[in-house]
Specification:
Number of helices: 22
Helix content: 40-55%
Radius of gyration: 24 Å
Structural class: alpha/beta
Distance between the termini: 29 Å
Strand order of the largest sheet: 1-8-7-3-4-5-6-2
């Protein structure tokens, strides 16, 4: 047979060879005219839908209890959606004979009600669009329960396999196991989608936006190169050797000795992105030199009211305790847009991604930020971590000054900003005169710079941190930090780090260091691979590689140019 080639966006490096298993196709849409069971009434059918939703919710919660980290969080969020009142009430209304078009069967009512909820969430974009995927996943599970069928999900197989899907529901992604799945390839999704982020956290070789892979037959042997973003059928002996070499290399790249540095000894501290005390302890065990991003949303999500200061002190303290004497950078509440909270955000905003989110919520919900800063200060006082605090969605020098003043008044000595909005990068020289440091959130910075929703597969090529425009914004930020430091008469340049997904790409990590980035924060699984590549280049070489990427006309060309100057990548299988 003729070898078939497919290409997409590489998410996680890895070279594997194995048989394909296609994700089962979605459940067939119930007919508009499908009858209800004999003797059924709207009340009995509504009760049947409710019972099915309870069963689905219980099954998801049981799976969440067995999961860890992000997987647990995703399953818990999906379980909540299974009992969503909007979905269940909408389905119940469609059971009435007074409904336009006549009464629907239970299955059809769930189908239409979920479609309506999904459409509303999709229109909001960002995180809400991702929750739309949850709704459709829950719909399939409830309908399967009504039909007495097994819930849809990742296929079972006697041997490990390469999983191919259009995209994965968050609940399915959360249960991916590297013991069962050799690699993940999707025809949809983007490099910053939920599926991609969880694949990185698992260290699972993955490619997204690879059009055409849905047509590969089950059982077909394929070779996947996650770093290159390619897949092909009819693997050769050379491919098999590369896959075997990767297995040996990956075991060597699974351990980080706790010291990020270049070949010339230039230090580049490698930190971890965490969300809970459990995450922090795992990161410390993995050798992380500190925390570059502590997401505080975990204290606030799935609640109807703001957590107390005491609750926050306990939660933050659990993270600080894992890194005594080391830096922990904590981000204040990043609510709004993709993380709506009923007690802070406005669900009726026409464009939440450009609305009241992050630091801006202090305008509409004053007091929440001040109380959080007080909690952070109390947690710091009770522990030995070196705590730095930063605000998300800072756009102007005035906002940076206001936040720094708030942090100082709470007793926090090191206050900085997230650079996610292009305006903050372009005016970093003035913005950073009012802050102690900056951390680039490359996920949102890319999304805003390229005007491309990071969850949309068709825009995957735009939503790529290798885009020359994004790299230039990184350089603008580091140069602005130098200018701000000089204007302040500071003895050292104000630190600029990266805490977005870009830091976990070993080749891009070299470029970022060459652009002046001082620290890199990532999933703990990425630490060893990034460290290994950094140790093969000097600072002078990193700067030359960054210049090559900056001068490229496209993201693809930038990646190719940089990788060509880092020979260690191929040798390490990265």
């Amino acid at each position: 047979m003729t070898q078939q080639q497919f290409s997409g966006v590489g998410v996680t490096p890895g070279r594997v060879l194995g048989p394909v298993r296609q994700m089962p196709r979605p459940l067939k849409e119930p007919s508009r005219t499908s009858p209800s069971p004999a003797g059924a009434t709207p009340e009995t059918e509504a009760a049947r839908i409710k019972a099915a939703s309870v069963t689905v919710q219980a099954e998801l919660r049981e799976r969440a209890a067995r999961a860890t980290g992000q997987g647990r969080d995703v399953l818990e969020a999906t379980a909540l959606m299974a009992g969503d009142s909007m979905l269940l009430k909408g389905a119940a209304k469609l059971l009435s004979p007074d409904t336009p078009g006549g009464a629907r069967s239970a299955e059809r009512a769930v189908w239409e009600a979920a479609a309506g909820v999904s459409e509303k969430l999709t229109a909001l974009g960002g995180y809400m669009a991702e929750r739309a995927t949850d709704v459709l996943d829950v719909r399939a599970r409830i309908i399967a329960e009504l039909r007495g069928l097994p819930a849809p999900g990742i296929p079972e197989a006697a041997e490990p396999f390469v999983l191919i899907a259009e995209d994965l529901a968050p609940a399915d992604t959360a249960t991916l196991s590297p013991r069962r799945v050799l690699a993940l390839v999707t025809s949809g999704g983007g490099p910053q989608s939920h599926t991609a982020i969880l694949a990185r956290a698992l260290g699972l070789p993955a490619i997204v936006a690879a059009q055409g892979v849905d047509d590969i037959a089950d059982g077909t042997s394929v070779y996947v190169d996650g770093a290159a973003g390619t897949l092909h059928t009819e693997p050769t002996a050379e491919d098999a050797a590369a896959a075997e070499a990767w297995i040996a290399q990956s075991s060597a790249l699974s351990v980080f000795d706790g010291e990020g540095r270049l070949a010339d000894g230039h230090a580049v501290p490698l930190l971890a992105n965490v969300g809970t005390g459990k995450d922090a302890r795992a990161a410390a065990e993995a050798g992380a030199e500190g925390v570059g991003l502590l997401r505080t949303e975990f204290c606030f999500l799935d609640r109807d009211e703001e957590p107390s200061v005491d609750e926050q002190v306990e939660a933050y303290g659990a993270v600080f305790a894992a890194f005594p004497g080391k830096k922990v950078v904590i981000r204040t509440l990043d609510a709004g847009a993709d993380k709506p909270l009923p007690f802070i955000t406005n669900a009726d905003e026409p464009n939440p991604a450009l609305g009241v989110r992050g630091y801006r919520t202090d305008l509409t919900s004053p007091g929440v930020l001040s109380r959080q800063l007080d909690a952070i200060a109390r947690a710091e006082a009770a522990n030995q971590a070196e705590v730095w605090v930063m605000a998300p969605m800072i756009s102007t020098a005035e906002e940076a000054a206001d936040f720094t003043a708030l942090a100082r008044s709470a007793g926090l000595t090191t206050a900085g900003i997230m650079v996610e909005v292009p305006s903050a990068a372009l005016t970093a020289d003035s913005v950073l005169r009012n802050a102690d440091f900056a951390s680039l959130g490359t996920n949102d910075l890319t999304q805003y710079a390229m005007a491309a929703d990071r969850l949309l597969g068709p825009l995957a090529a735009l939503n790529d941190p290798w885009q020359p425009a994004v790299l230039r914004l990184v350089r603008e930020t580091t140069e602005g930090a130098r200018a701000a430091s000089a204007a302040d008469g500071a003895g050292r340049i104000k630190p600029v780090g990266v805490c977005g997904e870009a830091a976990a790409d070993p080749a891009l990590a070299v470029v970022l260091v060459g652009l002046g980035i001082g620290t890199l924060s990532m999933s703990p699984r990425a630490l060893a691979g990034v460290a290994a590549v950094l140790r093969t280049v000097t600072l002078e070489q990193a700067r030359a590689i960054a210049d090559a990427a900056l001068s490229a006309p496209s993201a693809k060309a930038a990646r190719t140019a940089a990788r060509a100057l880092i020979p260690a990548l191929d040798g390490l299988g990265l």
